[in-house]
Amino acid sequence: MKSITAFCTLTLAASSAAHADQPTMYANDHLFTGQRLVAPSCSYDLTFQADGNLVLTTHGGSVVWASGTQNSGAGYVSMQADGNLVIYRWDGSPVWATGTNGNPFARTDLQDDANLVVYRGSQPLWASDTVASELIGTNVCDASAVTSTEQDTNRLGGDYAGFDLGQPNPLWCSYYCSQDWQCNGYTYVPPGVQGPNAKCWLKNQVVAPSFAPGLVSGVIYR
What we know:
Structural class: mainly beta
CATH superfamily of the largest domain: Bulb-type lectin domain
Largest sheet: 6 strands, antiparallel
Shape: globular
Strand content: 35-45%
CATH topology of the largest domain: Agglutinin, subunit A
Order of helices and strands: EEEEEEEEEEEEEEEHEEE
Distance between the termini: 24 Å
Number of helices: 1
CATH class of the largest domain: Mainly Beta
CATH architecture of the largest domain: Orthogonal Prism
Number of domains: 2
Oligomer: single chain
C-alpha cells in the first residue's frame, strides 16, 4: 500500500488474542455471506446465508435455529460495540436484532450445547434457547470465518489488490475481503487521502496494525 501522508505511527495492540476462540463474535465483528461461527466440538455451525438468513445447524446440516430473515435484503450481521447483535440490509436498516444494546462490549458465543448466547462477562443477555445434545464429535470442522473492524487503523503492507470503491463505505471493503479466500486482511482509505475516491486494499498477510485517523482495517479470523 502506498504511504499515507499525515498519519501517526502509534502501534496498536494486536487483537488476535481476543479472537482465539472462533465460536465467538466480539465487538465490531461481522459475518458476511458464507461466513460462520463453529462450535468448539465442531458439532454446530452458525452461518450467514446468501438469502439473508442466519442459520444454526448441526454438523450434518439439520436446522436447529434461524433468524427468519431470508429474502429480507439482509446483507451482513454485526456484533455492535453496544452489545446488540443485529442483521442489517446494505442501506443500514436493521431487519433483526437481539435487543441487547446498552451492554458495551458484550460478545456472542456459539456453545457446544447448540445454544447461541449473547453474554456480558458471565451474564447471559439473550439466547436462542436451542440447547441440544447432539455432540457427535469430529475433528473435521467447517471453515470458521469472522471479519473484524478496526476504526482509525491502518495495516500497512501485504497488498495483493487495490481498487476504488463506488461509495465511501468501509463495509464494502470488508465484504470484498470476506468473499476472497486469498484475503486475510484489508484497509479502507477514505476519499481525499489517496485520490478523490475511497480505496480498498486487500491483503494476503496479517500485518501489524498502526494508528491512522479515518482509515478502517480488519482481519478475517479463521
